[in-house]
Write a structure and sequence with these properties.
Three copies of one chain form a homotrimer.
Chain A (H helix, E strand, L loop, with lengths): L2 E2 H7 L3 E3 L5 E2 L1 E2 L9 E5 L5 H6 L4 E4 L9 E4 L3 H12 L8 E2 L4 E2 L4 E2 L4 E2 L4 E2 L4 E2 L4 E2 L4 E2 L4 E2 L4 E2 L4 E2 L4 E2 L4 E2 L4 E4 L4 E4 L2 E4 L5 E4 L4 E2 L4 E3 L5 E4 L4 E2 L4 E2 L4 E2 L4 E2 L4 E2 L4 E2 L4 E2 L4 E2 L4 E2 L4 E2 L4 E2 L8 E3 L4 E2 H12 L1 H25 L1
Parallel strand pairs in A: 4-5, 5-6, 6-7, 8-11, 9-12, 10-13, 11-14, 12-15, 13-16, 14-17, 15-18, 16-19, 17-20, 18-21, 19-24, 20-25, 21-26, 24-27, 25-28, 26-29, 27-30, 28-31, 29-32, 30-33, 31-34, 32-35, 33-36, 34-37, 35-38, 37-39
Antiparallel strand pairs in A: 1-3, 2-7, 22-23, 39-40
Chain lengths: 345, 345, 345
């Protein structure tokens, strides 16, 4: 690639401070960029690192004083970076068609503009929309729907009846629609509850590699539009995620819990079953949520409490030794007073 | 579907209080059920929700006063629900036979009543029992055994020598028999220990999507009969689970630990290596078990302690600020006494 | 198998104390070994168990007094065991060649000494080295490299451009090179950052079943030579692991963090993003690392602190009830003094 800086500014809706004719060969990290490269500072805390970068040009919100570089300025520099990445690294679109080794059953509907890769399996009653891509070894069960322009990477498995919206991305190894973990105890045995529900994934959802979403016992497990799920995340039966939720890697949501819109679970966080997390709730990494949380709150800890309370608790736990010593000092003083009193007596 | 309520009562061994001729179109959640539907209250804490449900009929342990509904009563309502689900949503059984694209090696034994799906691989020396189902892309390594009526969903991988009992269900992406994580350090390098053992999964075990069970270094990793394992669970080399254990999603058991019968690991719990958990031990979600636990105990916390102790600890941690203030108050008082004493002097 | 004990001693560079002509039929655990078997005590804490073992011979560092057994002595007994396992359970090497059902695209380079299994997919521009093995359903994307003697077990997926060194082992279901979890928020939506980087896995790396390694946004996600990664581990975009790291099951490293050489993450530990962990850092199981850690330190807790401090904290938390009582006792005493004072007044 080779672009004029001014040209990139136009592509991302930004403006140049410096030389708009500067050639940009590549976008690189601050550490790896050279004079021919554009780098970026989307978080002010990396400004110091920017000063040490050899990058010829910087994408940032405002010029950084004292740096002899050209700037590509954008009000939302991280969003500008996203637009730039889309231009420089456009996702490869596969040529539509059904690979000769794929197994598409009669009674399924595969749009002529869809791509069905090697050894993929599309069962009867499934519908695959225009522009959808099913990579190698994908399995789409009976009665599933994969919406327009959705991409299922290698080895994704959709159990029967699963619904995937438009423009979704399911990374390799994702499993959608397996049975929820539900058993009735009878005479000491665990008797399986057959699951009659399904999974619905709304539009613009991305799910990371090897994550799992279980079908509902009855009704639906539902992932709201625009939600993004990282790798190795568990979404249990009957869970409902609102729109625009973020579930970071190795987090999990237990059965029947409901997350509002814009809820964020940081890495390795867990939400117990049958809870409600209101809109905009944020859960700190490694937190265990055992109670419902009202909208707008941020929680942390095991069990989860308000993040402010958690920080104060942690600080106090860190001062426990000091408290113990102060307690001992008071006790010693009291003992001394006793002795004095006895001496007085 | 359409059933008489009385007919459903017979199917699940219950009885009707109200109109046995009421037509039931479907089973739905309290929230989604309408007048034509049966819903259920298997936990008394949902009785209030039941009052707001539009369900025409309710499966429950005892009639709920003041509700104008027909009741299907069962002593074990959750078990009755399980039986009902089995009737209403029977698992689809696939027509026996080997799919034309499957690769079944010479020297394997596949029962005529087994189903081998598209692109499945069955290696020499493997045995597949009657009624077993191997879905698309399943791999059964050399010398493996899959017992009668066991189902391996898409992309399950059995490494060579793995044994799966009868009536087991392995969900998509499960890996059984990969090498355990064992290395000897020599001159600063980690030297792999080749694993000569295997995995044995006893009868009636279910394992959730993308979970992993490693082979033993020597001997066996063993999952006891009737144990149920959720999604994304790790069972390390040489682990032994007793009968009827429950391992909830994202929990893990490290090498060589032994769990008795009926042990429950809640979500994201972990058990360190070389421990013993007695029969009936319960481990609260997110707990880290670093020591063996005697039969019948419930443990929580990091590190795990008895759940009662953990609750008291957590309550005390929540009161640390109050304790600090009381300590300060005593100190202030002591300082005042000092001043008084000095004033006296 | 049947070996003379003296012969085994030679194979592992050890020596016999006892009868070098003793026949060894198998290597078994202390519990399972019989008089014909060799067992091992690589950790002194199992010496008591050794006394109860029926094993005829024991591999250990030094003779155990009072045991009527023959000894195979080695300075590094665990390393000797690793060598022994390699002899007794050598990894099966598959006959080179491309399986008739595999799909190897034109424009890829597959060494004549490589094995490409059933239904495997090798895309254009990929290179597969001599002695490499791609098991069933493996997908190697465009432009990937798999080095000499590396083994990719069933259903491993390499996204385009991924590099795997020599003598690596990737267990079933591993996904390498999926997009990192990166979005820019714009007008309330999460806009995907297309990822232009790649994953580089250096030589002698082993990765456990269903683990995931994401590609970098720009540049590389890199796994240093000799590092070993267990099952269900997450390595996020732009992460760099040094040489000889150990990441135990269900641990995870968030984006852009850098681990030095020989870093150990125990099970279910997590490292937040943009951190640095120096050489030799050890992270206790279930720990959440929120700050960078200097070389050589061992950390524990949520949030992580030095392991010594964590142990003291935990001990103090366990004594909180006692502290509370002591505080109450001082308060009662103070109140009594008040009363006395009042009585005096």
């Amino acid at each position: 690639m080779s672009f004029r800086l001014g040209e990139l500014a136009e592509l991302v809706g930004g403006r140049v401070e410096g030389d708009p004719d500067r050639r940009v060969e590549s976008v690189r990290t601050l550490e790896n960029a050279g004079p021919e490269d554009l780098s970026f500072v989307t978080n002010p805390k990396y400004r110091r690192q920017a000063a040490q970068s050899r990058a010829g040009a910087l994408l940032t919100a405002s010029p950084i004083a004292g740096l002899d570089k050209d700037f590509l300025l954008a009000d939302e520099p991280y969003y500008a970076l996203a637009r730039l990445m889309g231009v420089l690294y456009p996702r490869e679109r596969l040529t539509p068609g059904v690979h000769s080794t794929a197994m598409v059953e009669d009674g399924s509907e595969v749009d002529a503009e869809a791509y069905i890769g090697p050894y993929a399996v599309v069962r009867a009653g499934a519908e695959i929309g225009a522009g959808a891509e099913l990579h190698s070894h994908v399995v789409v069960g009976r009665g599933c729907v994969v919406g327009r322009d959705s991409v299922l990477y290698a080895s994704v498995v959709l159990y029967p009846g699963s619904i995937v919206g438009e423009r979704c991305i399911l990374h390799a190894g994702v499993v959608v629609g397996s049975d929820g973990f539900g058993y009735a105890v009878h005479e000491g045995n665990h008797v399986k509850l057959e699951h009659g529900g399904r999974v619905v994934i709304e539009d613009d959802v991305e799910i990371g590699s090897n994550s799992t979403v279980d079908r509902a016992l009855l009704g639906e497990t539902r992932i709201g539009a625009g939600s993004k799920i990282d790798n190795l995340v568990q979404v249990a039966h009957n869970v409902r995620l609102g729109q625009g939720c973020l579930l970071v890697s190795q987090s999990g949501v237990a059965g029947s819990s409901r997350l509002g819109d814009g809820v964020v679970l940081a890495g390795q966080a867990g939400v117990a079953g049958h809870l409600r997390l209101g809109d905009g709730v944020q859960v700190v990494a490694k937190t265990a949520v055992f109670k419902s949380v009202d909208a707008g709150h941020t929680v942390a800890g095991i069990p989860a409490v308000d993040v402010g309370a958690w920080r104060r608790q942690q600080a106090l736990v860190g001062r426990l030794n000091e408290m113990k010593k102060r307690l001992e000092s008071l006790e010693a003083r009291a003992a001394a007073t006793d002795t004095e009193d006895e001496g007085d007596g």
